[in-house]
What we know:
With 524 residues, chain A is an alpha/beta fold.
Amino acid sequence: MSRPLRGAGVTRVLELDGITKRFGSTLANDNVSLHLERGEVVALLGENGAGKTTLMSILFGHYTADAGEVRVEGQALPPGKSRAAIRAGVGMVHQHFALAANLTVLENVMTGTEPLWRPRSDRSAARRRLADLSERFGLPVDPEARVADLSVGERQRVEILKALYNEARILILDEPTAVLTTQQAERLFATLREMAAKGLSIISISHKLNEVMSASDRVVVLRGGRVVAERRTRETTKEELAELMVGRAVERPKRPPAHPGEVLLEARDIHLSGRGGTALNGVTFRLRAGETLGIIGVSGNGQTTLAGVVSGLYPPDGGSLEIRGAPLARHDVAGVIDAGIGRIPEDRHAEGVLGDMATWENVVLERLWSPEFSRRGIVRRGAARAATARLLSDYDVRGAQVDGRVRLLSGGNMQKLILGRVMEADPSIIVAAQPSRGLDEGAIAGVHRRLIEARDRGAGILLISEDLDEVIALSDRIRAIVGGRLSPAIPAERADARLLGLMMAGDWATAAEIERQEEAAHAL
Amino acid sequence: MRFERREQSSVALTVMAPVAAILAALVMAGVLIAIAGANAFEAYGLILRGAFGSRLGITETLTRATPLILTGLAAAVAFRARLWNIGGEGQLYMGALAITAFGLLPGIAGAPAPVAILACLIVGALAGAALLLGPVFLKLRFGVDEVVTTLLLNFVAILFVSMMIEGPLRDPLAFGWPQSVPVPDAALLPQLVERSRLHAGLLIALLLAVAVWWVQSRTVFGMHSRATGLNARAAAFAGVPLGRTLAMVACLSGGLAGLAGAIEVMGVKGYVTTDLSPSFGYSGIVIAMLANLNPIGVIGAALFSAVMFVGADSMSRALGIPSYIADVTVALSLLTMLVALFLTQYRIRR
Amino acid sequence: MSAVLDILASVGMWEAVLRIATPFILGTLGVLLCERVGVLNLGIEGIMTFGAMIGWLTVYSGGSLWAGLAAAALCGAMFGLLHASMTVNLGLSQHVTGLGITLFASSFSYYVFRLAVPTSTSPPTVEPFRPLAIPGLSDIPFLGPVLFNQTAPTYLALALVVVLAWVLYRTPLGLAIRMTGENPHAVDAQGIDPIWLRIGTIMAGSALMGLAGAFLTLAAFNSFFPTMVQGRGWICIALVVFALWRPGRALIGAILFAFFDAFQLRLQTVVDGVPYQLFLMLPYLLSILALVVMARKARVPQALMQPYRRGER
């Protein structure tokens, strides 16, 4: 398996040999072997749950492997010691950046680089060294800036600089483009290639095929905790990698053409500052019956706030939200649900369910005031349990019991439960925020099928997602959200990666032109 | 050594947790007794005999358990909604003080007993609730942590009581002792057992424990308060009105603590002094935790504490071991209970 | 009105300010350390009580005053270890654990005290720390006696403010401590174990709380009696918020607070017709006010009250 793909004369800087790691009854890594040559960019490709992060956590000493060995330049690393990994020259750039928002860039980079008991930090030396590194690798940052004030792109730069500052010769990037626009990602890839040319070796963890194809020399595919294939990037195709990654052909459901009807939901110039993260600065859109409007965007541009407004969590400061031409009677969760809006939250665990409450309680909690489930403030437990039992079988929620805790469900089944809860109320509008985040392909297909069915029944669906493939697969029209504003809408048929990238970056000229053409065509 | 979350925590483990916790606390306190030069088994024997060995002991234990059940319930309902009400002590005093002031109204002394009692109970509960609504308002409006504010208000409340019983509410017949005017006879709770201090307050406390259990498990408000405590964000997403729920929880929790004070005055003391409560309010926190926040469990946990407190007094007289050993044991049982609860949820792996 | 001015102009009052401030300085620094590393320590009230008792007991049974302080610091550190092992290693509720430690440490202090002094007549006193006039400086009119005629523990507390500020902002250890309070994952990723860092820092902070308590018996009241700490620990928790988690501001906060306390004590004697309890309530109400004023400004350590477990986010 670890047969070198290149000829002689290259040095092997990293070897993972027969790594096995078990969590309880699940085998997260099963005899995984992997190697990395100097100056090489290897993509570690796999679905969520394929074992990528576990493998890298073992390499980095966060976990101890049950079996196997990690060797850096021929030397075995002691297991479970991240210090040793750092000293051996391994640097990790985390997916959720491991930075302290209230400290400065310099402080973040310096932490842990000096002997802990030294009576005084040498800040000026550190500042010089940081400036030197950021110049050498083309990663400009202000060392005295507070991390909280930086953009995500800048934060990623800080993370990379932190690794370089630790004299990393092997750089591991965990889902590096998750928070970047297409253009920012391209810039990152250029930087990475330049760094590889200067002798760094890089492992990039990803589940995005486009990214893997454009930014690696070699691809290692992980599935179910095992290495299933290894390919040179220029000798493989996206299609082959997709099949290897998924292990079976998964058909995302086909979407019949839309038949948009009346305007169900209309947002007019919605403003909201402060609460719920990024502000909204004048959001206007219409959603019709029987269509799906997809909202794309780089995370942190107001998606969460927008979903929160439509879900009834945050009443806007200005502007209005109208349902079938009439303003909402009460802008709160109850008001929104009464108006026929079904809500699929962005974060299942933090918002969607209460893990330590019973399944039936989770099912009825948001409709507790309906006479079906309570009378004079007293919960109708029988009715609630019966409705839950029905829902569990109708929506094929596996592993759930009416009285059991929801915490134990898998992500896919939890999402089925939430979907069932939404659909049972027969909503005319559905807000789906990141509906398939963290799910495996099978579960994603199920979620998509339900959403398409709802649309075909005449519901309007507002899909807010950072997964471009998902938006393209489901949406009839697409808008981008940038800095709390929505771009013009383009029909899904006219979307391509480049146009969507421009829209996400805030360059809306082409999109506006397309919107104008579409409107003109409809006016005829 | 690592800890791994148990996939399913069994009912048996959860029931065993307080028993194990109390045993562990007794063992540790036993070591302290031994260090002080007494036989721990003898000491515990004396404690049990003091608490159960006589009619007087039993009635005293039950009398002592009465306010503890109420402050335990007060902490349990608040903690369930993750409202850290540590102000039970102050709320208790406000409840007690309020009824002595209320009793001065001419209509009360002349009212039939059931009316006077009911009115006083309501006033006591309202006073306790009022003291907690302040911190809850500050929490909701300004984001001020209620732990510190409720703690600080305990001191303010006791100073306020001191001010009132040395001022407007002072009993002129008490020969200069700072104590309040007595509550009217009509508002005194009837005795349960002759020639004892045990009063009808125990029945009220037991009834309230059942009522609180029912409210928490059967009503919309109960479900909302549990959801708020488990995950406020998810609760808000499901449309639980967090502010209103917390305010209602505060009324319930503060009200129960206020009732503890009112009932102690109406059933045992008859008037208010600044040593009315040997930290009933703080003990309530331990009791709630020992009961794992279960209202019915609060009854058992309160009984355990009452046995320790009443028994330790007589044990102390016999062996010369300071009766503070009861406070030590009860406090230790809170710490051991936390660990025991942890072990019901995690298993240790090497 | 002139009586009020007289109070403000009196050396005695200003002399008292630093003395009253000392336990608050020490306690606030202790809370600050714990919270900077991400752990709320509600054990402070009990740890102060135990420190007061053990400091007094050490001296009462023949130890030196410094031995009393050392004993208080050591016992404080032990309670800190207990708190850390429950909240850091096991990740238990910091609120409940802290309260448990307060209840345990207080009742344990009373128990030990009663064992040492079984009869409950007036509590026995010890010979306390005497004011230490700094030659030269203490002769400066007004400022001399106010600043340079204090007891040794007061000077120690003032020195600790400087030391702590230096450690937190000028050393690699301090950076690691602050980082742990903000994001323990980041510290771990840099190869420093946040668990041990938290344990050590909590022990140090709790030692300071023990010292704060010992000051009460060894330099203020000269004896121990139950409930003597009177919520001072809780006030320290509020002062840390007021101080925005910075040692320099903690000093200012403690002094401001002590000023009001000294002022109200003296005001009681000149203002007639106002119950003294109202004055005594002031410190607690001021603390609540400080919390309200600062609640919006506060840049709370991001990982405060977040237990850290490897591999969990």
